[in-house]
């Protein structure tokens, strides 16, 4: 598909096995944090080795797309939207922490 680089928010301890690292190591900054911050939940992976360099990208700032924070920007409308989904019961299944049979 030609995708050379990915950014995402997530847990580095979970995603490092898939090749992700902190985005700050690629000099990709998260929009809402200081430029020199090592943001533990902002991750990146270069899928095509050397892609950033070939694209002439030495530093960048990531900004989430419009609508990403819709629940914060318009909480009343988001609650109406959420109410359209059936309620779910929290289950504790074998193999999960806190499962007591």
Would you report the number of β strands? 5
Cα(first) to Cα(last) distance is 46 Å
Order of helices and strands: EHEEEHEHH
Largest sheet: 3 strands, antiparallel
Q: Which structural class matches the secondary elements?
A: alpha+beta
- Approximately what portion of the residues adopt beta-strand conformation? 15-25%
Q: How many helical stretches?
A: 4
Q: What percentage of residues falls in helices of 4 or more residues?
A: 10-25%
Query: Which of globular, elongated, flat, extended, rod-shaped describes the shape?
Result: extended
| Arithmetic mean pLDDT | 91
Q: Are there runs of 5+ residues with pLDDT below 50, and where?
A: none
Q: Looking across the biggest beta sheet, what order are the strands in? A: 1-4-2
Architecture overview:
The chain is extended and about 50 Å long. By secondary structure, it is of the alpha+beta class. The termini are far apart. The chain contains four helices and five strands; from the N terminus they run E-H-E-E-E-H-E-H-H. Strands 1-4-2 form a three-stranded antiparallel beta sheet, with no helix packed on it. It has helices at residues 12-15, 51-54, 70-73, 75-82; strands at 5-9, 21-22, 28-30, 42-46, 60-62.
